[in-house]
Amino acid sequence: MTTPINVIQQSQLDPRQAAQLRAIYESSFPPSERGDVSKFAAAIASRVYSLFTAIDGNDLLGFAVTLRLTPSDVHLLSYLAVAQQARNRGIGEKLMRGATQLLRDNAHATALILEVESPDESNAEERHLRERRIEFYRRLGATMIEGAPRYRAPNLAGTGTLNFKLMWLPLVDSAKVPTGEQLKQLVLAIYVQSYKLTSGDPLVVEALQELK
Ligand SMILES: CC(C)(COP(=O)(O)OP(=O)(O)OC[C@H]1O[C@@H](n2cnc3c(N)ncnc32)[C@H](O)[C@@H]1OP(=O)(O)O)[C@@H](O)C(=O)NCCC(=O)NCCS
Questions:
Q1: Where does the pLDDT of residue 3 fall: very low under 50, low under 70, confident under 90, or very high at 90 and above?
Q2: Atom of ligand 1 at shortest distance to CA of 116?
């Protein structure tokens, strides 16, 4: 089905669209995966993060947020969400295809890294949802990064960590699934840039040692 959705990059939203984004953000992610929304808006305005939106008329129906993992040309998909009432109409796929094209054409991005919740250790219903999400990314061309089986992120709402799998979505033919030193540098960049941890943080030290 084709929808009259436009995918655009924005660094400022009008108050109505900002409220729509906030509502989608808060209903799509648990507190453990959510950062402070005002800091997040400031980071988009200052262009540290890039924001891509799916717009229907004047309404914001979905968004993707990415972060360049400097000094590489690989970007992290920090958030992707579509309004609950608009899901399963192809908007998520259109948003991903639009955002990756803009990243490749305008920011010379070579690949996107995706953090996906691990289906292991979850109950049957949650496992099914997580597997569907992984399938969604596979259909877009992403594959598992096998070298980071124990990757985990800090819980943003408290203590402890969240188990994730890392996926790799190449945007140019030469972008092969990272291994070895390249993988180490990318995982370190995620911890430092996205989670604001230092390279000496025990989680970072342990996670880097566990890479295969
Ligand atoms: C993942 C998401 C962005 C997809 O958006 P969408 O517009 O529904 O996607 P499309 O219509 O293009 O594609 C549908 C596919 O999305 C995935 N999907 C849709 N709703 C989903 C849900 N509630 N949970 C998990 N996956 C879902 C499925 O793979 C689905 O295909 P399927 O029905 O064959 O299983 C959307 O479900 C969402 O916002 N989820 C909550 C936030 C989230 O999980 N973000 C991803 C973080 S890793």
A1: low
A2: 48
Closest C-alpha residue for ligand 1 atom 39: 81
pLDDT tens digits for range 22-33? 999 999 998 988
Task: Enumerate domains of the chain plus CATH numbers.
Answer: 6-209 (3.40.630.30)
Q: Is 184 helix (H, G, I), strand (E, B) or coil?
A: helix
Q: How far is the CA of 126 from the centre of ligand 1 (A)?
A: 13
Q: How far apart are CA 112 and CA 23, in angstroms?
A: 25
Looking only at the bridges linking them, the beta strands covering 49-56 and 152-154 are unpaired
Q: Which amino acid makes up residue 210?
A: E
Query: Which atom of ligand 1 sits closest to the CA of residue 82?
Result: 39
> What is the C-alpha separation between 14 and 137, in angstroms, rounded?
30
Query: In sequence order, which residues have a C-beta less than 8 Å from that of residue 185 and are 6 or more positions away?
Result: 72
- 3-state SS assignment for residue 97: helix
Average pLDDT of span 194-204: 96
Tokens of 37: 């929304």
